[in-house]
């Protein structure tokens, strides 16, 4: 059984997948860079207003950041994966698809 991902970990993952640095996020949210670092390390709590701004900024839902909605989580995780996939070359994308086919196994 996997350990649930904490809010601060989801925030870091969403920021990285959005291609933003902590410095960029700090400017966009009008907070200091150490504040963003503290949030991502779990040393500082996030206000509801900050959570909403981060969700909008990172292109994810607040429900996914909070880990509350499993269906939203799957959709957000697929969205984050798609962001990575669209950066791949055609050759690398085909290799990933081949791997997925192997993991899935024969069609039923």
How would you concisely characterize the structure shown here?
The protein has 108 residues and is mainly alpha-helical.
Give an overview of the whole structure.
By secondary structure, the protein is mainly α. It is 69% helix and 0% strand. The longest helix has 16 residues, at 70-85. The two termini are 27 Å apart.
How are the SSEs ordered, and which strands pair?
Layout: H1 7-17, H2 22-29, H3 33-40, H4 48-58, H5 62-66, H6 70-85, H7 90-104
Helix pairs in contact: 1-4, 2-3
Keywords:
mainly alpha, 108 residues
Radius of gyration: 16 Å
- Compressed to H and E, one letter per element, the order equals HHHHHHH
Q: Name the average pLDDT.
A: 86
Total of helices: 7
Taking the alpha carbons of the first and last residues, their distance comes to 27 Å
Instruction: List unreliable stretches of 5+ residues.
Output: none
Strand tally is 0
Proportion of strand residues: under 5%
Shape: elongated
Look at the helices and sheets and give the structural class. Answer: mainly alpha
- The residue fraction in helices comes out at 55-70%
Described by strand count, sense and barrel closure, the largest sheet is: none
């Amino acid at each position: 059984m996997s350990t649930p991902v904490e809010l601060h970990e989801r925030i870091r993952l969403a920021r990285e997948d959005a291609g933003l640095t902590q410095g960029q996020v700090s400017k966009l949210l009008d907070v200091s860079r150490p504040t963003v670092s503290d949030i991502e390390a779990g040393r500082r709590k996030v206000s509801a207003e900050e959570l909403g701004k981060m969700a909008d900024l990172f292109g994810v839902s607040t429900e996914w950041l909070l880990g509350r909605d499993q269906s939203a989580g799957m959709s957000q995780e697929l969205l984050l994966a798609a962001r990575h996939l669209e950066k791949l070359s055609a050759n690398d994308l085909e290799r990933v698809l081949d791997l997925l086919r192997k993991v899935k196994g024969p069609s039923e």
